[in-house]
Amino acid sequence: MLKKVKNKNLLSELEIILKEKFNIKKKINFNTSLKSLKDWDSLKHLDFIITVEKQFKKKFELKKIFELNKINDFILFLKEK
Amino acid sequence: MNYKINNIYIKSILSLVPSIVFNIKKKIGQNERLSRVTRVIGVKKCYKSKKNQTTVDLFCEAAEKIIKKNKLSKNKINLLICVTQTPDYLMPSCSNIVHQKINLNDKCAAFDINLGCSGYVYGLWVIMSLMKNFKNDETALLLTGDTISKTIKRKNIENKLLFGDGVSATILGIKKNQRAYFEIGSANDGYNKLCINNSGLKRKSNLLPTFYMDGKEVFQFAIKNVPIMINKLLNKIKKKKVNFYVLHQANFFMLKKIFELLDIKKNKRVFSIQDYGNTSSASIPISICSKLKNKKKNIIMAGFGSGFSFAACFLNLSTCNILGVKKSEK
Lengths: 81, 330
Hints:
By secondary structure, chain A is mostly helical. Chain A has three helices and no strands. Chain B is α/β, with parallel strands linked by helices and 330 residues long.
C-alpha cells in the first residue's frame, strides 16, 4: 500500500514538471511515453532529465539518458537507492 | 586505430570568427525554447558570417593573420590542408583557392578533407603523417572550420543558436623530442543522422542545402565512442600528465556527463560553447585559443560528429604560440 502511495507521489511530481516547465496539458500515467507527448524532441528530453536530476538530487547514468522513456522508467529509477 | 607520430609540433594556432554576433537575448528576446538551448546546450551567443562571406574568405583571412603574426616565409609552407563541409564549391577544393589567394609557392601541396566536428584532430593526424620527410625549416598549414549557419533554415531557431560560424589556422613544424598519440575511427552507422541535405549532386529538384541533425542519435553515438577513445589514449599516457581536456563543443550537458564518467577534474575541463556555439571543426582550436592562451600544456583533444566519425589525440602545446580568437575585419 505504502509503495503504491509513493509511486503516485512521484507520478504527480513528474506530472507537475511536465505541466509547468514543458506546457504538457495531457493527463499522464505510468505508461505514458515521453516520445508520445506533443512536439517532444531530444532537447526537451535532455531538459527534462536535467530538471529531474535537480529536483530529486539524483544523477542519471550517461548511457541510460535516452533509454528512459516511459514515466514508469523514471519512477523506477527515482526509487533506486 | 592508434598512431604515434614523432618530431612534429604545433607551432602556432589562431582562430577567427565573423564579426556578426548572434546574441540570444538581444536578437530574439527570451523565450522558453531559447532558454532551453542555453540551459541544456550551454550556448549564450555565437557568430554568423555575412551573407557573402564564405568559408574560403574566412580561411584566407585566418591564414594571412597567422603567417603575419609568426613572421613566416610563405615559401617555406609546403603543405596546405583545408577541413570543411561548407566549401565554396564542390570543385575546385577550398585549399586550391586559398593557395592562390594568399599566394603560396607552387611546390606547396594543397587538398581538402571533407569532415565536420572530428575534422581538427583528423586534420592534425593527416598533416603530421605527411610531414615526416619535411626539413627543419619547412612548415605546414591546417585550416579548419565551417559557415554552417548558411545551411540552417530561419525557422530552425534552436540550431540557429547552437551552430556558430568560425575557422582556425594552425601552423605545424619539425622539432625533436615531440610525441603525439592519436586514436582515429569511424562508426559503421549514422551517415544520415547529421548531414547537409541537397548539398551535393544527390539532390531533390532545386532545393537548397539544408542542415539536418537527429539530436538523440548524435548524443548516443558520442557517449558510446568518446569515453572509449579517451580511455584508449589514457592507457598509453599517465592521466596526471594531462593538464587539459578539450572536447568538440557539441553540447554542455553531454560534455559534462562525459567528463563525470571519465572522472576528469573540473579544472581540467575546457568549455567555450557558451561564447561561440558549436563551430564544427573549429570548436577545438577556438576552445584552445579562448581558454588556454597562457596555459600551454599537455592536452587531450577529442572530436566527434558527422559520418559518424571520431578522433582523439594527446599532444604537447608548451611551445605553441596561441594567438587567441580574432574577429574578422571584413
